[in-house]
Specification:
Strand order of the largest sheet: 3-2-1-4-5-6
Number of domains: 2
CATH superfamily of the largest domain: HAD superfamily/HAD-like
CATH class of the largest domain: Alpha Beta
Oligomer: single chain
Helix content: 40-55%
CATH topology of the largest domain: Rossmann fold
CATH architecture of the largest domain: 3-Layer(aba) Sandwich
């Protein structure tokens, strides 16, 4: 009997609503970038992120105000820039820890995640949001701490861009699982294409009301909710 498939999930648009991230989390970080950078300038993670912003904009001596403007420009364009995600993740983690923030999950998600865990499926997260943001997100769900359900977390820094097959190859190598024993759930066809190119199985999560619903999920198997996934595994 073969081992249970490994399941890797995206967050935004897949496990939780994009609108929550855009309408609540993005403004929360935007209001705090300058204060956070100033208060945590000696933090290696913050210093690295600021240096990455300066390198990206080609201004090695950019002031904090200029760095914040660049971050907000990326935020306006919803760019998945690693230093933006790093700083957002740190700010959100503090917000979740303080109780100001609670993450959002579609109602079908948490029961199925728990069922998959009970059935022995190893589970991971791969999101453009930083690992620290992912940990804060799953630790502060409306139903409590979900981190014990997962075996690990990947982002654009420790794995690579989500639309590049090499990132999925890196994850498979890191977790020691054959690509054809991994299932990736996402709402974005470009991510699903990249995962499939790396040899993974894919499931497109297409939820009515989400921004990418009209684009569809290409020729990938499609579900509207997590409780429809098992029939495809």
């Amino acid at each position: 009997m073969s081992e249970p498939l490994t399941i890797v999930v995206d967050i935004e648009g897949t496990t939780g609503a994009t609108g929550f991230v855009v309408d609540q989390l993005y403004p929360y970080s935007r209001e705090r970038f300058a204060e956070w950078i100033g208060a945590h300038a000696a933090d290696p993670e913050v210093a690295r992120a600021v240096a990455q912003v300066r390198e990206a904009i080609g201004e090695p001596d950019a002031s904090t105000d200029r760095v914040v403007r660049a971050l907000n420009d990326w935020l306006d364009r919803d760019e998945k820039a690693t230093p933006l995600k790093t700083l957002q993740g740190a700010i959100w983690a503090a917000g979740f820890a303080s109780g100001e923030l609670t993450s959002h999950f579609f109602p079908d998600v948490i029961p199925v995640l728990r069922a998959w865990r009970s059935a022995g499926h190893p589970m991971y997260v791969f999101s453009s949001g930083s690992v620290s943001a992912q940990i804060a997100w799953f630790a502060h769900s409306p139903e409590g701490d979900l981190l014990p359900l997962f075996d690990g977390h990947f982002d654009t820094e420790n794995a690579g861009p989500k639309r590049v097959a090499a990132s999925y190859e890196k994850i498979a190598s890191a977790i020691g699982t054959a690509p054809d024993r991994i299932v990736f759930l996402s709402d974005l066809v470009a991510e699903l294409d990249a995962a499939r190119e790396a040899g993974w199985r894919t499931v497109g999560v297409r939820r009515p009301g989400e921004p990418h619903y009209a684009r569809g999920v290409g020729d990938h198997p499609e579900v509207a909710a997590f409780d429809q996934v098992d029939r495809l595994l």
